[in-house]
């Protein structure tokens, strides 16, 4: 290394120390090639050529005055860029090894395990969906997706129209304006006539043959019926609500009883299971559990709940099939 290069390296090392980028103990560990590259780059820099040329030979006081306040970040960025580039070059030339390796080895990538969906067309809960009151039947693959989405939105505080849109938006990405318009029609359709939304003369022969607005309407009609079956709303004027869900093992019946006393809610749930299973009612602080190995009745109860909130009731049939219902005790109504 010639005298000019050594002088430039000393100047850059002094600069790095003053910028706080390294300390005297670290200077010895810096790759000389990096320092040489920094020094060489400095000879081509219009901003620093005069400051670090050998002819100037500044003293310590003059070196402190060489850099203006706004130039320090630029020097830092330049040093980091050069250091990164040098490290990348060295890694490419000599890739690092794991502690147990002696040479570079190729490892076959392991297959990525994709978690199975919560529901499938073989799920016990699908029997109910095959009997939805729809003018055109939906494919079971679509019904599976809608059931999964309904289980998510049924516990949310969204209004009905927003729930309909949220449940189907994954099927129709980027169509929010049209989905909102169709959701309004779906919500008022029962108050008019069934043929207002989908006139019989224009009905498609299948879901796949329907145009997109018709598919949206059919999906939301299915979602509305599913959410209605998953939701049990109890009020002081209607303190008992029953709900039935057809499964491949038989009919599941849920009965909810509600009492409101001094601002506190007591919920009692009774279920007739078509096969062995369990119930879990989750409160704000406590949960109630009940299970049995065969078909029959189960009961559970939770007290000190808050009105006007939604509480999840998880029903499990067999070992894996689970479905979440929503119980909403209201203070008025």
Task: Provide structural commentary.
Residues 42-66 and 109-117 have low confidence and may be disordered. This protein folds into three domains: 3-93; 126-230, no CATH class; 235-329, Immunoglobulin-like, CATH 2.60.40. It is extended. The protein has a five-stranded mixed β-sheet with strand order 1-9-8-5-6. It is built from twelve helices and nine strands. The protein is an alpha+beta fold and 333 residues long. Strand 8 (311-317) and strand 9 form a beta hairpin.
Terminal CA distance reads: 90 Å
Order of helix and strand elements from N to C terminus: HHHHHHHHHHHHEEEEEEEEE
**Approximately what portion of the residues adopt beta-strand conformation?**
15-25%
Structural classification: alpha+beta
Mean pLDDT: 78
Q: Taking Cα atoms only, what radius of gyration do you get, to the nearest Å? A: 35 Å
**Global outline:** extended
Share of helix among residues? Answer: 25-40%
Count of extended strands: 9
Features:
333 residues, alpha+beta, 5-stranded mixed beta sheet, 4-stranded antiparallel beta sheet, extended
Quickly describe the structure.
The chain has helices spanning 3-18, 24-27, 32-43, 49-52, 60-64, 72-93, 126-129, 140-153, 160-168, 176-188, 194-197, 212-230, and strands at residues 231-234, 240-247, 250-261, 264-273, 277-282, 287-292, 296-305, 311-317, 321-329. By secondary structure, the chain is of the alpha+beta class.
């Amino acid at each position: 290394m010639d005298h000019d290069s050594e002088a430039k390296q000393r100047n850059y090392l002094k600069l790095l120390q003053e910028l706080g980028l390294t300390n005297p103990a670290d200077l010895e560990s810096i790759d000389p090639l990096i320092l040489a590259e920094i020094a060489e780059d400095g000879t081509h820099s219009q901003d620093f050529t005069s400051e670090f040329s050998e002819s100037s030979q500044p003293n310590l006081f003059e070196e402190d005055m060489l850099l203006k306040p706004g130039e320090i970040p630029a020097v830092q960025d330049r040093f980091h860029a050069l250091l990164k580039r040098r490290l990348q070059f060295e890694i490419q030339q000599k890739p690092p090894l794991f502690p147990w390796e002696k040479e570079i080895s190729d490892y076959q990538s392991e297959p990525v395990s994709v978690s199975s969906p919560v529901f499938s067309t073989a799920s016990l809960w699908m029997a109910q969906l095959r009997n939805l009151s729809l003018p055109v039947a939906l494919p079971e693959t679509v019904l599976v997706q809608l059931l999964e989405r309904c289980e998510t939105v049924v516990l949310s505080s969204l209004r009905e129209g927003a729930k309909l849109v949220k449940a189907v938006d994954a099927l129709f990405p980027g169509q929010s304006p049209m989905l909102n318009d169709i959701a309004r029609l779906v919500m008022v359709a029962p108050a008019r006539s069934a043929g207002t939304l989908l006139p019989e003369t224009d009905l498609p022969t299948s879901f796949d043959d329907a145009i997109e607005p018709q598919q949206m309407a059919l999906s939301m009609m299915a979602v509305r019926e599913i959410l209605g079956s998953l939701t049990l709303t109890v009020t002081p004027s209607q303190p008992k609500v029953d709900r039935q869900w057809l499964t491949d093992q038989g009919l599941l019946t849920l009965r909810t009883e509600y009492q409101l006393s001094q601002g506190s809610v007591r919920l009692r749930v009774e279920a007739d299971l078509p096969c062995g299973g369990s119930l879990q009612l989750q409160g704000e602080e406590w949960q109630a559990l009940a299970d049995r190995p065969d078909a029959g009745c189960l009961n559970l109860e939770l007290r000190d709940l808050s009105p006007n909130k939604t509480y999840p009731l998880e029903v499990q049939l067999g070992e894996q099939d689970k479905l979440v219902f929503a119980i909403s005790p209201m203070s008025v109504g």
